[in-house]
């Protein structure tokens, strides 16, 4: 594009872009506003007063659903997914810098995981854990430890099947980011460290890590936020308890008060807080002088 | 999404962990939670089941049942109907997200001049991706409902007398929600392709007397092919396997392939669900394969 007068098409495209942004954010903003309905208010406009009434209702819990517990579960799972995503993607990213047998296969497997219909992955993990349960139970019975069965429920759970299901979704993103980062990574710094007699660990710890830290924070944000909203892969792999988005999905057909908007506002605020925190952290990391 | 990646640079002789040790945990997750479960789905699709247990067997009964009645020419069987309905959504959503995604990416890539503004607007488009899908679906309710903003406005402007019923819990609202949720998957790869187009090519086209449209159609579109294909793969696979969006936005009234699998699982009919999952996977893979024939993905990655 040359500098100077903007072509007429610019204004038309800018208008389309503006409309698209409005389309993206308008509905979100609508429920944000509606979640502050007064006690008399309903699911649509007009606003009947302004209050925190529905947030209070949400706090008390919605009928049989324990929102607070689901919220805690989702936060805890999100944090574990975040840590696993950062560590495993970093390991894989470092590995991909060297040539290793099967790297192509691993790359395509992780891309396949990204585009695999989620319901299929979820069904598979659900089946897998049911079969594990069956095998364990029959195994315990054969060796005469049937009494242990009393206490044994299922291998399915937040930090087993659900964690695995979430990682099949977050790790491919993590790997793609790490590959992009190391593609633009200048190896001269490490070579300098090597030449100055640094051990591999020292050159990783004092040279590579500070340089890629902002990207790792980004990977962590992907890990947490994707886990925080994940439904499709969790649905068959969660067992008896539910994460917050799954509860939310169930509530859509039963709750007909603005309390559900209040819940939406709360989860969106969490997402935004994580994004904001990420940006802050990245800025801080980039500002720090790298000490040798 | 489609981050440009070239093969890793040649290895420098150095100490430290071997590549395999570093990649092992990552690999293990995919072996345990992707490869193994998929193998199990394929195996279980040939099993039999009673109300309370799975019976290892080798029977094609589940597949026969899926296609039950598909031989008749008078009326379409349930499975074919469902696939047609899902494919219809697929096509509509693909077309709309492609057009919007292309236009938005084009504006960002070629009309926003400062890198700062470009980054800011790009992030603005991607932020919703990190927020809850269900919330973004529900957020249409106050706008599209019987007494929603749209109906109130239209009645207020005397355009209509009674509220329009098909705005919510209909095919329309399902497509709208898909477009709302997944246009981003088109924007990112197409934008990525556009940013790598050598600007000199556009000048060459202009110097040779091409109009704006001709440049877009003959230069930019072919060079964005990879981005378009990657975006298309994302959108198509998501819509093919979806059960959440169609469930919530269709008022739990519209059938989809993903929903069949979900419902069968909830009734513990695992072999049937597995057979349906295998068929869904085959159909989806064939669509992806067809798309990748159009372009060499490897070059892009």
From TrEMBL, chain A:
Subcellular location: Cell membrane
Principal subcellular localisation of the protein: membrane
Domain ABC transmembrane type-1 span(s) in chain numbering: 71-282
Topology class, membrane: Multi-pass membrane protein
Keywords assigned: Cell membrane, Membrane, Transmembrane, Transmembrane helix, Transport
Organism expressing this protein natively: Piscinibacter gummiphilus
Transmembrane segments: 12-36, 75-96, 105-129, 158-182, 203-224, 259-282
Name listed for the protein in its UniProt record: ABC transporter permease
Record-linked PROSITE patterns: ABC_TM1
Family named by the database record: Belongs to the binding-protein-dependent transport system permease family. CysTW subfamily.
Automatic annotation (TrEMBL), chain B:
Cell location: Cell membrane
Gene3D superfamilies: MetI-like
Pfam family, one: BPD_transp_1
Key word Transcription regulation present: no
Coiled coil: none
Domain (ABC transmembrane type-1): residue spans on this chain: 83-291
Family named by the database record: Belongs to the binding-protein-dependent transport system permease family. CysTW subfamily.
Membrane-related topology note: Multi-pass membrane protein
PANTHER family for the chain: INNER MEMBRANE ABC TRANSPORTER PERMEASE PROTEIN YDCU-RELATED (PTHR42929:SF1), INNER MEMBRANE ABC TRANSPORTER PERMEASE PROTEIN YDCU-RELATED-RELATED (PTHR42929)
Keywords for this protein: Cell membrane, Membrane, Transmembrane, Transmembrane helix, Transport
Protein name, entry field: ABC transporter permease
Domain of life: Bacteria
TM annotation in the entry: 20-47, 89-109, 115-131, 166-191, 228-250, 270-291
